[in-house]
């Protein structure tokens, strides 16, 4: 048996690659971490809404994460999608369970409004193929700059077997001071095959 002595940096290289792959597998989708993106963290925890909170069974559905995340700052006002299509900044909410899309996509279930003015932002809601992620796309080409917005998902949202969320989920974020555009994130769970390459030096 041949033993090859490696430097500490080389020995920990495989460990860092393992941690990176675990993090990517766990996030389920690519977030925007640029200065014009979600600011304080892409796909961050949404509060409240933890499954099993007081008055709710641990099996109740809820929103586990959102992008932009709660209290994010410097969020881009618009999103650039496929074919150079630019829309108002898209929001995503990832549920802890597969949902019944007919309870999430109707007008009034997943909403966005200006926090201070209380003005509703018109838009449409779509679900991914697994029915675990809802995307709110504003009708306007951009959100207002330097403005705080509040997103809400009401208790009308139900999981695949008809169990409603025990409480409405709301989170807020603030857009950049000037109009800006970010790239639409890629849902790795719905993308093609991908791999991580690492070199230990």
Overall spatial form: globular
Structural class, by secondary structure, is: alpha+beta
Q: How many DSSP helices?
A: 2
Alpha-carbon Rg, integer: 19 Å
Major sheet strand order: 1-5-8-7
Tell me the series of helices and strands, N- to C-terminal.
HEEEEEHEEEEEE
Describe the largest sheet. Answer: 4 strands, antiparallel
Number of strands: 11
Measured by DSSP, the beta-strand proportion falls in 25-35%
Helix content: 10-25%
C-alpha termini separation: 23 Å
Low-confidence spans: pLDDT under 50, at least 5 residues?
14-45
Mean pLDDT: 75
Can you walk through the features of this model?
The chain is an alpha+beta fold and 201 residues long. The chain is 12% helix and 26% strand. It is built from 2 helices and 11 strands; from the N terminus they run αβββββαββββββ. The model is unreliable at 14-45 (pLDDT under 50).
Topology (elements, then pairings):
Elements: H1 8-27, E1 63-67, E2 72-75, E3 78-80, E4 86-88, E5 91-95, H2 101-104, E6 110-114, E7 123-127, E8 133-138, E9 148-153, E10 169-175, E11 181-183
Give a quick precis of the structure.
With 201 residues, the protein is an alpha+beta fold.
Which features does this protein show?
alpha+beta; 4-stranded antiparallel sheet; 2 helices; 26% strand; globular
